[in-house]
Amino acid sequence: MATLAKKIQMVDLKSQYEKIKTEVDAGIEEVISNTAFINGPAVKEFQSDLENYLQVKHVIPCANGTDALQIAMMALDLKPGDEVITASFTYVATAEVIGLLGLTPVLVDVYEDTFDINIEAIEKAITPKTKAIVPVHLFGQCADMERIMALAKKHNLFVIEDVAQAIGADYTFSDGKKVKAGTIGTIGCTSFFPSKNLGCYGDGGAIYTNDDVLAKKLRMIAHHGQSVQYVHDVLGVNSRLDTIQAAVLKVKLKHLDEYAAARNKAADYYDNAFAKHPKLKTPVRAKNSTHVFHQYTLRLVGVDRKLLREQLAERRIPAMIYYPIPLHEQNAYKSDRFKKEDFPITEKLCATVLSLPMHTEMDEEMLIYITDNLIELLN
Fold first, then answer.
1. Residue 357 Cα distances to 224, 239, 261, 275, 277, angstroms
2. Do 296 and 356 meet the contact criterion of CB atoms below 8 Å apart?
3. pLDDT at 3
4. Residue 5 has what pLDDT?
5. What is the per-residue pLDDT for 2?
6. CATH for the 15-109+116-253 domain, from 3.40.50.720, 3.40.50.1110, 3.40.640.10, 3.40.630.10
7. Mind spelling out the 3-state secondary structure of the chain?
8. What's the N-to-C CA distance of the chain in angstroms?
9. Does the domain formed by 255-378 have CATH 3.30.300.30?
10. Average pLDDT score over residue span 41-53
């Protein structure tokens, strides 16, 4: 049995920081020295860098990923009572902003293999009140965007991509065209929460679009609805990306593909170690999307998950459950519209998924220790 030399964490931001410390510290020091704390040069520079990386016309930085989703829906002029379809197997923020704006969240099931939103379930849920679909690119790979966009076109719906967990992933259409996650729909929204693949050292977020008119409106809404100073044309909010956070993100963006490669290397090790284990189902890679492994999520078969987590913790191996309670069973979103039998896969996943440590600093010693111990506990 392998020994453990270094503490294993779900995300190791300190070790990652130590490798880029000189660049990050210099960027932060420059912001402090020039005292441009709000909308300083680093914000515009990071915005431009991200536009180039994503090959998207417009990036609108904002304060966090939840704000990104809210601003997107405000910019599309969605009205109270309008229905917005999203997955029940996701983090609460996706549905939260729908409710906050007085819109009606319509929750649907997901696919068991990729964890992404079920296209057939979307189509079944569409009504005359449906105005938008919010596919969540869960755990690091894209939902089936070609089919979603075809469905949206057929029914004249907006598509807001929640790309908080999949920044940097590539989606390939059936004609061979390859694009970045978040640049396919009407609007893409992301979070720069520290644990994200591209994370800052506080809160941060961004909105993407290729629509010039929509971009102008998104910027206005994020800045108090202003077209020019003290002229407020639309109802807005105050949602800015902090200049210090932009300086951090500007450095880390240069390493994003390298980070994705490190995560994939760790995922490959996990896959190989667990490939033939009857009690473990490893993550499925979608054929039309690369995977950036924000999380490495197993499906357990005939395993007492609570006991397994406790046993792993005793061996100093953290493991998380994303997500233990589906949105349709959360008190804030319970509704007679949602029937348990409409969510068989979501219910199953919430009861069986387990995420293992996954970050850019995973080394072979850690991976050996984690996999050897998990297999021993299951045998």
1. 40, 32, 16, 18, 19
2. yes
3. 61
4. 72
5. 52
6. 3.40.640.10
7. CCCCCCCCCCCCHHHHHHHHHHHHHHHHHHHHHHCCCCCCHHHHHHHHHHHHHHCCCEEEEECCHHHHHHHHHHHCCCCCCCEEEEECCCCCHHHHHHHHCCCEEEEECECCCCCCECHHHHHHHCCCCEEEEECECHHHECCCHHHHHHHHHHHCCEEEEECCCCCCCEEECCCCCEEECCCCCCEEEEECCCCCCCCCCCCCEEEEECCHHHHHHHHHHHECCEEECCEECCCCCECCCCHHHHHHHHHHHCCHHHHHHHHHHHHHHHHHHHCCCCCEECCCCCCCECECCCCEEEEECCCCHHHHHHHHHHCCCCCECCCCCCHHHCCCCCCCCCCHHHCHHHHHHHHHEEEECCCCCCCHHHHHHHHHHHHHHHC
8. 14
9. no
10. 98
pLDDT band at 86 (very low <50, low <70, confident <90, very high): very high
Segment 262-274 mean pLDDT: 98
Task: With CA atoms as reference, report the closest residue to 104 among 124, 132, 74.
Answer: 132
The two tokens of residue 97 are 């902003």
Give the start-to-end residue ranges of the domains of the chain: 15-109+116-253, 255-378
